[in-house]
Amino acid sequence: MKESTRMLVPEEEKCIGCRACTSACPEKLITFSEEGNMRSISFPANCGTGCELCELCELCALACPENAISFIFPEGESENVEKQTLDFELVSCQKCGTPFATIRELEKVRTAISEKVPLPPKGDFWVELCPGCRQEVFRERQAEALIRERTV
Ligand code: SF4
Ligand code: SF4
């Protein structure tokens, strides 16, 4: 009887589409693509069939901040599924309009902030700025503060 192949199982309810697993995989078996305002993450279903490292390594699961990756050994022969893909809608930057993060990623950031610091209304506006625009806005604000300081 053929030995059961370990399967990688991403949990759609937990996954926020952050791509940490794509960066962590030494074999580049987890990939992502972006088109318009959608991001897709593709996971190898039959983990271990094309990659010996997969039998031992769990780096993707260790890198996942949401514990969204687990491994199972299906009863009998596993189905020959090559990939399983999760799709995420992206939020566009409020300044430049570039889609940059998933709705779930930003929800997570907002929740983390609100648990740690009380913010004034609209105090978390920067969450919806892409990294480039965020830096630009902070630089502009720092420059404004410096000018105010020097003109008082
Ligand atoms: S177990 Fe290792 S090799 Fe397999 S998909 Fe995850 S990170 Fe990549
Ligand atoms: S690291 Fe976890 S939460 Fe992020 S995309 Fe991969 S499975 Fe999803």
Give a description of the structure.
The chain has 4 helices and 6 strands, in the order βαββαβββαα. It has 2 domains: 7-89, Alpha-Beta Plaits (2-Layer Sandwich); 93-151, no CATH class. It has a 4-stranded antiparallel beta sheet with strand order 2-3-5-6. It has helices spanning 20-24, 59-63, 103-116, 131-151, and strands spanning 7-10, 31-35, 38-44, 69-72, 83-92, 99-102. The chain is elongated and about 75 Å long. The protein is an alpha+beta fold and 152 residues long. The mean pLDDT is 85.
List keywords for this structure.
152 residues, alpha+beta, Alpha-Beta Plaits, four-stranded antiparallel β-sheet, two-stranded antiparallel ribbon, 6 strands, 30% helix, binds iron/sulfur cluster
Note the main sheet.
4 strands, antiparallel
Strand-residue fraction? 15-25%
Strand order of the largest sheet: 2-3-5-6
Question: Gyration radius, to the nearest Å?
Answer: 21 Å
H and E order:
EHEEHEEEHH
> What bound compounds does this protein have?
iron/sulfur cluster
Shape: elongated
Strand elements, count? 6
Level-1 CATH class name of the largest domain: Alpha Beta
Helix coverage percent: 25-40%
How far the N terminus sits from the C terminus, by CA atoms, comes to 83 Å
Number of domains: 2
Helix count, per DSSP?
4
Rounded mean pLDDT score: 85
- CATH architect. name of the largest domain: 2-Layer Sandwich
Low-confidence sequence ranges: none
Structural class: alpha+beta
CATH topology of the largest domain: Alpha-Beta Plaits
